[in-house]
Design brief:
The protein is 29% helix and 28% strand. By secondary structure, it is an alpha/beta fold. The strands form two sheets. The protein has a seven-stranded mixed sheet, with helices on both faces. The longest helix is centred in the middle third of the chain and has 14 residues. The chain has one domain: Rossmann fold (3-Layer(aba) Sandwich), CATH 3.40.50.150.
């Protein structure tokens, strides 16, 4: 399944896929719907792409006007793919790529705060809820009024108690569900 940048300065550029079966890139249709929802928030935002895979979501954010995107991914093949995709799109200068376990990175804290966070871990492993819980417990990752978006299979969705993050929307696109949370401002 080829993937591409849907809109913005890198519109139409095809992105490399991570070799092997370890990642599930978001379909262009879902990515376009996501960014239509986020349209008013992208320009000038700081974007965090957790379980980044190919990097296509963070790259889309950069292409559409995000000031900066940080990509966190554990797999070496995926890290190389993200770097190649950033280079191919000409967006490397506004990106930071971190190779490491998402939970170890979240636990370590951040010098940067983010306006939008995309969480798209491997399916059926409850990693999405674990990442949300980790973000919810730490204040040093999210700016006031930040949004966190989880990409999951609809069968994975479950409600659970969060301290600060509030579920504000849920959209289903075939076998993909996007669940939106907000970190309310003070």
């Amino acid at each position: 399944m080829p993937i591409r940048v849907v809109a913005g300065t890198a519109k139409g550029r095809r992105l490399r896929l991570v070799p092997g079966e370890g990642t599930r890139p978001v379909r262009d249709q879902v990515k376009e719907a996501l960014f239509n929802i986020l349209a008013s928030q992208i320009d000038g935002c700081a974007f965090l792409d957790l379980f980044a895979g190919t990097g296509s979501v963070g790259i889309e954010a950069l292409s559409r006007g995000a000031t900066h995107s940080t990509f966190v991914e554990k797999q070496p093949r995926a890290i190389e793919t993200i770097r190649q995709n950033l280079e191919h799109t000409g967006l490397s200068d506004r990106a930071r790529v971190i190779q490491g376990d998402v939970f170890a990175v979240l636990e370590a804290g951040s010098r940067d705060r983010f306006d939008l966070v995309y969480v798209a871990p491997p399916q059926y492993s409850k990693l999405w809820s674990r990442a949300l819980l980790s973000l919810d417990q730490g204040r040093d990752w999210l700016n006031p009024d930040a949004w966190v978006i989880a990409q999951i299979d609809p069968k994975e969705h479950e409600s659970f108690e969060l301290r600060r993050l509030i579920e504000i929307d849920r959209r289903k696109y075939g076998r993909t569900m996007l669940v939106f949370y907000e970190w309310p401002g003070e």
